[in-house]
Amino acid sequence: MTAGDSIPARVLIVRLGALGDVTGALACAGALRRARPDLHVGWAVHDLALPLVEGHPWVDRVHLWKRGGGIAGLLSFVGELRAERYDVVLDLQRILKSALVARLCGASRTVGYDRARAKELSWLLHSEHIAPGDRRAPMILQALEFAAHLGATDLTPMRELPREPEAEAWAQALVAELGAAPIAVNVGASKPPNRWVPERFAQLARTLAEHGHSIVLTGGPEDRDWAAAACGAADGARIRDLVGRTSIPQLVSLYRRLSLYVGCDTGPMHVAAACDVRCVALFGPADPQRTGPFGPGHVIVRAPERGGSRPMNGIEVDAVLTAVRSAQS
């Protein structure tokens, strides 16, 4: 009997978002696929993280739950899931919404986190739970516990992101134009307590450019205004402003070609780590052991005070520059 013999033929993974969480959860799909190559893997996801699983070699079917679709959209989504007749559903998100999705699929088995790690009483909706584990363990390793629960034995934390040909060509041309593998300075973060001071990001980018590095600024549309100002205050040939201008496939393709990533605790940090790029990660209240970039060579810069409404204000530019030099050594 092999490890794959105990794994059901049809498995659905529920990890709706966000970018970093979906990136880490892919390791579970990879472990299951290695254990049983003929496995059918489905994935339930929201719009933002769709490009990370659509067309992925480890994922056979993607079920998109569009945000803003209302009751009609939800009913259509659930109907699509039920029609697939999955044998087991893995709820890697551990909240009530994802647990409800798992329960509504109609599968005889739904697996969630143990009671101590689950949120919003989501553990009550599952027929099975993974064994109690360390809440501070890296999230990618916690995702692999679900693969182990089904019988997978090779739990190597592998990550692979899809390659879109047009995005790859775009990124290759951009890096050729820059003349060298750039450093990405990713501005902003989805959670306000995780955000660094915008002016310090601008100062950091200018200083790195003055030292001869090619810089690409990345981030969301909400960061556009000050990113444009940062570019205007430095050598335009050295700093390329891409904030709010890249698709997710373009971001992934660009990050594959970086020499270094600098940014806060946010999804693109995990994308960079999955691309085997060293990260200088700025952390405030969150635990970098649990949600930091996974893998060797990363450098964490922690805020000296982690309480209050703006803990990241305690991180100075000089501390980040020192971390950059350490990551490059």
Give me a quick take on this structure.
One of its GO terms (cellular component) is cytosol. The strands form 2 sheets. A 6-stranded parallel β-sheet has the order 3-2-1-4-5-6, with helices on one face. The chain has a 6-stranded parallel β-sheet with strand order 9-8-7-10-11-12.
Q: How many strand elements?
A: 12
Helix content: 25-40%
Biggest sheet strand line-up: 3-2-1-4-5-6
Helix/strand structural class: alpha/beta
Can you identify the CATH class of the largest domain? Answer: Alpha Beta
Distance between the termini: 47 Å
What do we call the CATH topology of the largest domain? Rossmann fold
> How do the helices and strands follow one another from N- to C-terminus?
EHEHEHEHEEHHEHEHEHEHEHEH
What is the approximate shape? globular
Radius of gyration, in angstroms, nearest whole number = 20 Å
Number of helices: 12
The CATH homologous superfamily of the largest domain is termed Glycogen Phosphorylase B
Number of separate domains: 2
Could you report the average pLDDT, rounded to the nearest whole number? 93
Runs in which pLDDT lies below 50 for 5 or more consecutive residues are: none
The major beta sheet can be summarized as: 6 strands, parallel
Strand content: 15-25%
Q: What is the correct CATH architecture of the largest domain?
A: 3-Layer(aba) Sandwich
